[in-house]
Every structure is written in C-alpha cells, then in structure tokens.
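User: Batch of two.

Assistant: Item 1 of 2:
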Amino acid sequence: MSPRKSVAETAATRSRIIDSALTLASTEGLEGLTIGRLATDLEMSKAGVIGHFGSKEALQLAVLAAAVERFRLRVPARAVGARPGTERLTRAFDEWIDYMREGEGHGGCFLTSVASEFDGRPGPVRDAVLDALASWSAYVAAELDTAVETRELPPRTDVEQLAFELNGVALAANQSIQLHGDPQAPTRARRAVARLLGAPRGGIPPRRSQKPPLHIKKK
C-alpha cells in the first residue's frame, strides 16, 4: 500500500467515524457517545475507533467541529445571496428554522442541544461551543450594524439587545420543535423574526446556490 493511499484511507475512516458519532450524538448527546457503541455500529474494534482521536474528549471535539461546519454550510452560506442587513438575517434565520426541522434525523439544532448539554461543564468542549456561538453572534451583530448604517433599522437601535432577542426566538423555536413537537413552532418563529426585523425592502429574493463562506462572517 502506498503512503498516499494509506493517508487517504485513514482520513476516510476518520470521517466515517465522525459521521456515525454525529448521528449518535444527535439523539444521545455528546456525553452519550461511547466507543463501544461506535465500534459496534462501524464494525470496528474499540482500539481502531479511539486510535483515530486518542481520547473521548478529542472525539467529541471532532464531532462538534463537524457539526459547526454543517451549520455554516446549511445556514449562513445559504443567506449569502441576500442583501446585507435585515434581508440577509431574515434569510439566515429562515434557514436555521428549516435546519431545526430537519435536524440530524430527529429534529432540533444539534449545536443548540450541545450548548444546553455543556453550559455548566467547564472544559475544552464547552469552550468550543462558546467559540461557535460567539461566531454566530458576531455574524448577527454585523448584519444588524449594516441594517442600522443603511437605515433599515433606526439609528439608535440597541444591536446587542436585538441580537439577544433574535437568538432567543431561535432557542424557543428549537425547544418547541424538539421537545414539544409543535408543528406551529416554525411559523411562530418566523413571525417573531419578521416582527423584530421588519419586512425587508423588496422582499427576499429567490434562493440560489452560492459558494459557502469558510467562516461565519459578514460578506
């Protein structure tokens, strides 16, 4: 076996483990991940699974990184084509609500669930969750700043407060979708976002394929 093929196969196996772990963690939580369960599901040895990461915590961090990337591609990347400001934020939250409904096969947003799971547990996983949420908050705040600059929102808009309220709507929607199974939750969440942001001028343009950003940031 050539070294190049060996590296490629190792990377493919690692990706397969992460995909399986993300599916499992979506229903069992990151703490619910067990090397034994993954090994059984993947028809691998426990040593073969853990050997790609070194520890359960490293596996959890890899799964979280994969979830963050999926969120980036699924939510802010699909809002790239919308006009910066309230229109883009409306699109982004619309995509996030759709993502909550799709979930990872069970409904709900994985990152939101992990944030609740680790909010009181200091450590690298909690730090990584905070970093991901900080990136999202920065994205929201940047678009709100743009909306203020372009006078879509009043000059004295409290951007931090508005971002807080928008994210609060998303958290409430996630709980209603995942815990209560409320079919009206997506509609209610969209109405709340629209009320907070106001109707974008000209409406939201049709969705179209865009090259996703590498990071959550203002375009």
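Item 2 of 2:
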Amino acid sequence: MTDSLSPQQERRSDLARRVRFECDMRGVPLHLEVKRGAYARWLKPLIDGVLALIATILFLPVFLAVALAIKLDDGGPVLFVQDRTGYLGKRFRLFKFRTMVVEAEALKEALRVHNVHAADSPDFKLADDPRVTRVGKFLRKTSLDELPNLWNVVRGEMALVGPRPTSFSATTYRMAHLPRLAVKPGLTGLWQVSGRANIDFDERAELDVRYIRSLGVKQDIGLLVKTVEAVRKGNGAC
C-alpha cells in the first residue's frame, strides 16, 4: 500500500496538473516551489480586492475625465479590452484606457519589422509607436491608461503586485517562462520598477520568478511605493 501524500504535496501536485491543463502543454510541470503561506493564500487577495475597490471609487472623477478626453480626441471607444494570460495560464479580459488608434491591432503585423525585441520574441514593442494617439501619449506617460486594471483586481483576475499579464497565450511560453504563472498577474511588479523597460521576455520572466520566490507583504509594499514614485516622476508604465 502506497503512502498517501501530505496536504502540501497534494497542493503542489494539483498546481502542476492545473498548469499543464490551462496551458495545454502536456508534460510540462511548474518547476517552482511556491510559498503558500497565509499572506499568499488569503491576505494578499483580500487586501488587493479591498484596496482596488477603494481606489476605483476615489479615482472615479479621473476615470470620467480620461474617458471624455479620449472621446473628444478621435471619437473612438474609451476602453481597450484584450485577452491576456493570467494565473495558471487562464485567459481573461483586461481593461485599459485606449491609447492607440482604433485599427491598431490590424496595423501590428505591418509594423513587426520594427519590433525592438528579438525577431523570435513574443513581445512586441516599438521605440516610437505611430499608432499611439495624442491623448494616449499622455496617458502612457502618466500610467493613467492602466487605471481600469483596478477592476480586474476587484474581479479577482489580477493582483496589485505581480507579473504583468501577457497578450500572447501560455502555449507560447518556454519551459523557463512557466513559473511566472504561479501567481496572479499584477498592475505593477519588479520589472516595472527595475528601470529595465526594454529587456526581452526571458529577462522579464527571470525578474518575475525572483519576485515569486520572495513573495511577501514587505516586498509588495516596497514595490507599490516604488511604483508611486516612478509614476510621480513621470516614468510611465512599461
């Protein structure tokens, strides 16, 4: 008769199975020991949800002002809604203020040759993206375009701090990237405040794993403070 698994071993086994299922990558385990203490399991989601709801209410006048500015600029939709990859590879709909022209996604392939990242990188970024609108440049500089992410936190799809959710699915991830799916994606994280905006996805994943390995309330508070300081200085979001 085989020995039964401990509760901790069962959680780790279940986590690996769920990652394989959600990512549709059979046989690829989550090779990372994730801290499952009280903060990560209960306190962090509760604190994130409450703070995000309070922030959404407080920033309501800003939401309305930004929405009006976008409408007056080109008359297009206020929000940009895009499928992103989140916790354990699950796709969810991310909300942002629209900063690009309405046909931005259709123009993406024609501009791919100017991608600042490697040709085989799933990341896409342009040094001076011509698709960004006049209002969009200001929103990006001030990080106001990310404010609707707060609703994703309220809905439980994101956290205040964590790896940024990717637009490409987890089936694009290499094995070394998968550990970043062990926590909910965040509004901000170690990469955003590292001062390394143009690093490739491999390096971003390394920073994300470093964050997850040190997951704790002290680190989260420190990253939130650094994020506020970066926004205050006008560094913008990455």
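The chain has eight helices and four strands.
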